[in-house]
Amino acid sequence: MKKNALKFIVFLLLAGHLSTAQNLSFGPMVGLNVTSFSGKPNTTSKTGLLAGGFFNYSSKNWFGVGVQFLYNQMGAKLDAPAEEINLNYLQVPVLFTYYFSGENKPGSFRPKLFAGPHANFLLNAKNKDGNDLNPNNLFYKSTELGVTLGGGFNYALQNQMWINVDARYGIGLTDATQSPNTNITNRGFCLTVGLSFPLGNI
User: What CATH number does residue 164 fall under?
Assistant: First the structure.
């Protein structure tokens, strides 16, 4: 399933190559998220960290497509017994973006909307004391697929150098657990801040 997910991501990224004159940028990003489980009763949300980097192609100033590589702390809190499930993933979203402004000069303000698929690759599963909750991968799947939706804005500090502020909501589409009798998916809201640097035109 990992190979299929990676092939899907590569295909979508190549599909975003909309013209022969593309602008490539990259940069770091960090954020705070609030995540929960859908399909599991007696649970509440928990907070976590999201951090990583991105590469982005933009075409004709109005449209873009990018891939992100993120360390994402997800999971939920159990009400009874009181416990915390921390599912830490390498998350790889591929996001298609529409910009409401085509300006690209210092001081430009560019509101945007974005959406696209993401793949989560499980790094570990631990409780609040750091104990392993997934020995031999018995309880949680190594790969999960979902969709990311969001919006935000970019502000140009100088030519082709931007501050990116985003709000996003991630919806899991596949069961995160190994149990055949459940359908528990990850959900999460996240605020992120990033800094975009130009790599040139290709």
Answer: 2.40.160.20
Ordered DSSP codes for 54-103? EEEEEETTTEEEEEEEEEEEEEEEETTTTEEEEEEEEEEEEEEEEES---
Number of domain units in the chain: 1
- The domain of 70 spans 2-13+23-201
Q: Is residue 168 part of a domain?
A: yes
Please choose, from the candidates 51, 74, 62, 67, the residue with its C-alpha nearest in 3D space to the C-alpha of residue 123: 74
Task: Measure the CA–CA gap between 196 and 35, rounded to whole angstroms.
Answer: 26
Q: How far is CA 57 from the centre of its chain?
A: 17
Is residue 21 over pLDDT 50? Answer: no
The model's pLDDT over 115-156, given as tens digits with 9 standing for 90+, comes to: 999 999 999 999 999 999 999 989 999 999 999 999 999 999
Rounded CA separation 140/80 (Å): 20
| Domain membership flag for residue 18 | no
